């Protein structure tokens, strides 16, 4: 008997390490998380190639130790990204399988399948996983699953989202929506029901999975979801705890038996599997026994570990979690006290210390973790899928919105970045700034459109420029208006307008022009802004000092040109002023990078000492 209606729609959480599928049970009016053939509710995001088969999920993971070079995991890290991306390069160094670039700089996994070398993109690996999840659901629903909502991290850029969507389409699914993982988690908890149309409800989602930590701040107001900020670490997750445990037990074994098992892959793989079990058990017991039969050279390994020791071994990981949470609030410029709900998802959020850290960070706040943390995202996605498929009566119309991950700005005098739309601004959005010409009779003006966080404009990513020519002849200070707009699809457009004549220059920048910055490139840009903060601030100070000198010199020039003022000046004073202007202009004309800030300040003092007494004299 069919358990759904109108063709079945499911929600798929396509995770870095585990995937999960859920469906709405029409008759029971609830979401069911569907178990795989092994009876597990989550399925490893692993695809393995052998001489006879393509294995997916549990079966693939179980043979990983003996077929490492043909067992692909973590495809989500590479999807929609380029091989030249520095972190793709970095990731590939430690992978047990081969990754090469195709002619489009797209990463491809190289495997041996049926005695032949074959290459697969991350998109096609993900597609196999999505298809497998669809089949798990089809088996349970007793009808073909045709439609799905697929989740992606909130920080995924357009190219990563598009690639995920294509992966699902290749798996034969009609994608109802690509939805942000934290949004799906908030939907799972029905948090939109608590939001009203007057007040915004702030939700903090902490998603701690197998290989990544993603934290997001959402706001809900009258069924509109907005991602206000995201932060995270693409290399912090459950596997790091396993690594620390593995090293700890390996040392204990080696010391106790005076051996070195570190070069034995089979022993390592068996000890790692035991570490995974021990870690999971430590989330529920204060002390856990460890045992591996004939671990190395026939020697059994027996040990135990307490929760306290586990926390001590992973101190640094917990510290990093805290820092990431803090950063999210700094970015969003929101007080943590204004958070209404905290949602914990991802398998690693089961670790008691993680819960404790969050409880301490949000005292007296309700922490939602009643839904299995590794199922909550699929749960929300399944609910949304049913809603979009018209399976739920009186379902609210949820609107899911987004933020821009990097700031958009322009260059102003002295290569200083002026930000029009700061990063993490909810889109769609429009911002306008007014600028003025810097020279007399300036007939053309150009603004470069940059994205990035550096204060020195030219260090940011140049997207294009807008230019107006044929400005009327006027003294400097002639006004123009620069407007940036980001529409709901994340497309930026810039418009430069002459305020007097309304003459315009338009520029539309699509995702393609943006160079499809990957998540890590975005993270890198944000990080480099941090690294170069002092240097950039020095640059801004220097530019300001030069601008101040330039402004003052302009005033002196104006005085000379103004007949009324000029007639009062003695020829000696005129000569002095002219000389001072010429000297200052040499300094102003020199390259900013090659000058010291004090040069501008000293020159300003020097020209002032000439011009101020003259000004006083003539009144
Ligand atoms: P993904 O990163 O793919 O979204 P999940 O959210 O399913 O993955 O999280 C998987 C991680 O959760 C794994 O590293 C697993 O070891 C960890 N995990 C699962 N159960 C527990 C538990 N009881 N205690 C600690 N960690 C757990
Ligand atoms: Mg996940």
UniProtKB/TrEMBL annotation:
Source organism superkingdom: Eukaryota
Keyword field: ATP-binding, Nucleotide-binding
Pfam families per the UniProt record, alphabetical: HSP70
Gene3D superfamilies reported for this sequence: 1.20.1270.10, 3.30.30.30, 3.30.420.40, Actin, Chain A, domain 4, Substrate Binding Domain Of DNAk, Chain A, domain 1
Family label: Belongs to the heat shock protein 70 family.
Protein name: Uncharacterized protein
């Amino acid at each position: 008997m069919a358990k759904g209606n109108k063709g079945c729609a499911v929600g798929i959480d396509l995770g870095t390490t585990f995937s999960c599928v859920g469906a709405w049970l029409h008759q029971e009016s609830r979401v069911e998380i569907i178990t795989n053939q092994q009876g597990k509710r989550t399925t490893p995001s692993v695809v393995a190639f052998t001489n006879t088969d393509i294995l997916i999920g549990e079966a693939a993971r179980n043979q990983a130790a003996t077929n490492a070079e043909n067992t692909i995991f973590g495809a989500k890290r590479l999807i929609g990204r380029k091989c030249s991306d520095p972190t793709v390069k970095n990731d590939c160094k430690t992978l047990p399988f081969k990754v090469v670039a195709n002619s489009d700089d797209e990463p491809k996994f190289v495997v041996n399948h049926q005695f032949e070398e074959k290459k697969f993109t991350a998109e096609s690996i993900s597609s196999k996983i999505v298809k497998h999840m669809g089949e798990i659901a089809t088996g349970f629903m007793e009808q073909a699953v045709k439609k799905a909502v697929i989740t992606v991290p909130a920080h995924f850029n357009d190219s990563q989202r598009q690639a995920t969507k294509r992966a699902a389409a290749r798996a034969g699914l009609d994608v109802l929506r690509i939805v942000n993982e934290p949004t799906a988690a908030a939907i799972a908890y029905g948090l939109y029901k608590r939001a009203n149309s007057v007040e915004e409800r702030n939700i903090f989602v902490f998603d701690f999975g197998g290989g990544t930590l993603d934290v997001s701040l959402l706001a809900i107001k009258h069924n509109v979801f907005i991602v206000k900020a995201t932060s995270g670490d693409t290399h912090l997750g459950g596997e790091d705890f396993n690594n620390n445990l593995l090293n700890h037990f390996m040392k204990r074994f080696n010391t106790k038996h005076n051996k070195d098992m570190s070069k034995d892959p089979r022993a390592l793989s068996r000890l790692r599997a035991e570490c995974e079990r021990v870690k999971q058990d430590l989330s529920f017991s204060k002390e856990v026994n460890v045992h591996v039969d004939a671990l190395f050279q026939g020697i059994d390994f027996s040990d135990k570990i307490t929760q306290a020791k586990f926390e001590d071994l992973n101190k640094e990981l917990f510290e990093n979690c805290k820092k990431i949470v803090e950063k999210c609030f700094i970015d969003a410029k929101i007080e943590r006290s204004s958070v209404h709900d905290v949602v914990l998802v991802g398998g690693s959020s089961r670790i008691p210390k993680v819960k404790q850290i969050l409880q301490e960070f949000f005292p007296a706040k309700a922490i939602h973790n009643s839904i299995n943390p590794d199922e909550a995202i699929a749960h929300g996605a399944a609910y949304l899928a049913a809603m979009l498929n018209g399976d739920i009566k009186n379902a609210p119309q949820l609107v899911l919105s987004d933020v821009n991950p990097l700031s958009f700005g322009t260059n102003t005098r002295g290569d200083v970045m002026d930000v029009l739309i700061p990063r993490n601004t909810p889109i769609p959005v429009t911002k306008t700034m007014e600028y003025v010409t810097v020279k007399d009779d300036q007939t053309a003006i150009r603004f470069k459109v940059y994205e990035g966080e550096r204060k020195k404009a030219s260090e940011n990513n140049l997207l294009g420029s807008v230019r107006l020519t044929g400005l009327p002849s006027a003294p400097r200070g002639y006004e123009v208006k620069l407007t940036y707009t980001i529409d709901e699809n994340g497309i930026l457009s810039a418009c430069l307008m002459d305020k007097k004549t309304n003459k315009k220059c338009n520029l539309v920048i699509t995702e393609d022009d943006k160079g499809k910055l990957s998540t890590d490139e975005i993270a890198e840009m944000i990080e480099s802004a941090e690294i170069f903060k002092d240097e950039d601030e020095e640059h801004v100070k220097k530019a300001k000092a030069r601008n101040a000198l330039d402004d003052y010199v302009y005033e002196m020039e104006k005085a000379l040109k103004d007949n009324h003022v000029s007639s009062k000046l003695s020829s000696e004073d005129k000569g002095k002023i002219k000389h001072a202007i010429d000297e200052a202009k040499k300094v102003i004309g020199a390259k900013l990078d090659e000058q010291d800030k004090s040069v501008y300040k000293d020159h300003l003092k020097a020209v002032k000492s000439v011009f101020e007494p003259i000004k006083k004299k003539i009144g």
